[in-house]
């Protein structure tokens, strides 16, 4: 990010934020996981997730599941699974309450200090869910249209970044309550976009830089 090109009142809060909240993602999906078990406990839900990197995980590690930052609370390296817990606040703001065994999810571990920043700044803090309105096969790529509730800080711009189910993507046809994205074959094959159908709910995280700018400008 070229913070020196932004006014101090914009980049200073960003520096403060990432100093105090160091877990950050980039929206580049590492692997697909699969929900193997679900257990409810009070208002919480415990998800057991099978993945190719489960044996590398440690308890208390942060992993983005479809864009939701969740803490690993148990690991079974032999079974290739880990467990995360979603509280009621998370369930209310995301699509996790709709998950069922067998569902595939996008997984990304938080960025290492020496890692490459190939996507954009993603916190793993979902703002709200959106609805997939349409999917169009473009003979080699796919166009998806999403609709969401308009509101303060829910800003997209042409050629700007958006995080959908944990995937860093570029917006076009941006409006106050919707936008479109184009998916290339590699992304389609290596994320849950191949499973997405019209009417499905997805997790949205708007660009943190845009949210700070919108707040400072009173929008």
Automatic annotation (TrEMBL):
The keyword Lipid biosynthesis does not apply. Pathway: Cofactor biosynthesis; riboflavin biosynthesis; riboflavin from 2-hydroxy-3-oxobutyl phosphate and 5-amino-6-(D-ribitylamino)uracil: step 2/2. Coiled coil: none annotated. It catalyses: 2 6,7-dimethyl-8-(1-D-ribityl)lumazine + H(+) = 5-amino-6-(D-ribitylamino)uracil + riboflavin. Lumazine-binding repeats lie at residues 24-120, 121-217. GO terms for biological process: riboflavin biosynthetic process. PROSITE patterns: LUMAZINE_BIND. Residues 24-120, 121-217 form the Lumazine-binding domain. SUPFAM superfamilies: Riboflavin synthase domain-like. Its EC number is 2.5.1.9. InterPro entries: ATP_synth_asu-like_sf, Lumazine-bd, Lumazine-bd_dom, Riboflavin_synthase-like_b-brl. Pfam families: Lum_binding. The keyword Chaperone does not apply. One of its GO terms (molecular function) is riboflavin synthase activity. Keywords: Repeat, Riboflavin biosynthesis, Transferase. Catalyzes the dismutation of two molecules of 6,7-dimethyl-8-ribityllumazine, resulting in the formation of riboflavin and 5-amino-6-(D-ribitylamino)uracil. This is Riboflavin synthase.
